[in-house]
Fold each of these.
Amino acid sequence: MRRKAELHLHIEGTLEPELVVELARRNRIELPTFDVEAIRARYDFANLQSFLDVYYANMAVLRSEQDFHDLAAAYLRRAHDQGVRHAEIFFDPQAHLSRGIPLDVVFTGLSAALKDSPMPSALIMCFLRDRGAEEAEQVLRAALPYREHFIGVGLDSAEVGYPPSLFRRVFEMAAAEGLHRVAHAGEEGGPDYVWEALDILRAERIDHGIRAMEDPALVARLREERIPLTVCPLSNVRLRAVPTLRDHILPAMLDEGLLVTVNSDDPAYFGGYVEDNFVALRDELGMSEDQLDTLAQNSFKAAFSLG
Ligand code: ADE
Ligand code: ZN
């Protein structure tokens, strides 16, 4: 199995149905069903928003430091088993704050798991773009006492209608704190969202970025500046950004000389962890061992130093 870094992974997206049920029982939370197969059967998504609705609803079971610890510890074990040797992990504090879970619970629980990680790992705090810039600025200010717990900021959730330009100021604040900057762009949104992430947010990596391929000038910019793109093939199929894996533009991105990487995004929902993505690229898309080696090597080139 190839060694790789995972750079696009939402920790809340690793909440497997088994853990949903276990945490619901632990926290005495009612669920519509306690049958894990029935929960999994609902993971049939028409687009990003239909996934996000389920993703946010399931988070109701995450309440204590121990819950956040157990979630991250389970991911780290599983990722290590899949050849991950460096992990940069997104989390969505606003999705917990809005349910009355304090930032301290989230940071303390996740950080405790990362401290015992089998490989180097770090947190990237994401802003939910559909909650606007003012709330993002509030959460960044509230997170600064935990500055040593995270290495960067990201931008996720519903993309279309919430362009990167709305978040200029909060990304400037993050840069002034020495934080790394990444942003989801070009997943459902067009190339203009990727341009804005680069020019306005000064994003150092683009999460997804598949629609950048519609704009040759943008492809040239990404290639010349060696901007990494964290592509998530199984996610793109499950959220219907591409019809089937055979239609995925990833091989063309490699042919263009882009610094592309493979990642699992929300593996509990999309049918596989990162090695499962590599296997599917080989078996369903027919990518060669050399291409897969390049993708794995790219992931370490695209990683932030955790030092
Ligand atoms: N939050 C979790 N997964 C996401 C994705 N694929 N796109 C945007 N926001 C997300
Ligand atoms: Zn994502």
Amino acid sequence: MEKIIIEGGKALKGTVRISGAKNAALPIIASCMLTGGRHRLHNIPRLRDIKTMKSIMSKLGVSFREDHGILEVNSDNLTSCETPYDLVKTMRASILLLGPLLARYGKARISLPGGCAIGARPVNFHLKALADMGVDMSLEQGYINASVDRLTGANIFFDLPTVTGTENIMMAAVTAHGKTVLKNAAKEPEILDLANMLRKMGADIKGDGTDTIIIHGTKRLNPAEHSVIPDRIEAGTFMIASAMTGGDIHIEGCRPEHLSAAIKKLRSTGTFVEVNGNGLHVKGTDIIESSDIKTMPFPGFPTDLQAQFMALMCIAKGWSMIREGIFENRFIHVSELRRMGAEIEINGNQALIKGRDRLLPAPVMATDLRASASLILAGLVAEGGRTEVHRIYHLDRGYEAIEKKFRNLGAAIWREKE
Ligand code: EPZ
């Protein structure tokens, strides 16, 4: 186990380059199972979750090769359709293998992903949509046993716009017999990135990015080459870090149009944010104005930036209200922020924050991916000592070498063995 140590109080300065998006790379890597042949993927981030996805798919017979930063994926010889529980329990996104396996082989035995720190995270919308497409499913020993002769296009309506649910059904539908219409589909940029990859493979998809996606099944798909979009949540995390530390940073290789809600909100706190093509210039101010947020599906304020924005509000002037509109338990970072002196009251899915002029260094514990990011941000401003963030394997799931990137911006931050 490792921990990250931070000596806070330094204003971030300089330039940071954003890595490829974890939540685009995961479904795109899974989509390589839809057809044999050699796919070539660029800008795949070096993350724990990507490693987990590759090891699960290797157990299914998929082969991977790194070629000068390009990930080659070949699923000519699938040897199994069963994902092992011990790997699935570490990453819920393995549910994304269900659609491709059923599309390619008509069979899948996937361990039902359990809940996680931020909520129960059911997959009922995925399963109901697949049943509508003709899949027979049973639950046995915690595994979903699914089989279908050939997937049939269907009219699907999601009760909530589920990101991985939309992605799973898109992958199931591209070679299904007939037309599939997805209503109340998720509109996140990662959905469009997957649709672009599938179109390069020969799929007939329209409407991605809107709440209605229409897919006409095609007989054959071919391997494709694709570069994954940059990670909007990593970019948003660095924007908030600059705002908190009174910094002046340039964020390169991001897609500002994926961050409109976060940019608008940060500007409302008095932070200077300038959009320059595929870069952002973000400067903090002495006084951070408080601002309320409610997390919503895209294009609303992203739930994956909620914990980071809360860290900012902990040192803002006055009171702010944060409402978590997506997950039922995404305030676990609050108790750890309180250990650093934050004044936060929780009432159901609402958190009321009373800004203070400083946070105090302390040993804290990461509990989930984005909560750990908020503790790093709090540590960057906690002066007069060291903040130790423990269990940072949560962080490594979704951020590529985050302490190196912050150190290059002038932060006193390093990693140590526990
Ligand atoms: C994706 O999770 C992301 N993960 C999450 O990022 C992100 O927080 C989330 O979307 C929301 O934007 C990946 O893309 C790998 P949902 P997902 O299905 O797809 C309920 C991170 O930090 N729901 O859009 O699992 C669900 O409980 C991670 O990178 C059902 O009830 O989220 C939630 O309340 C964390 N039944 C809401 O819908 C279902 O079958 C939205 O969840 C599916 C979802």
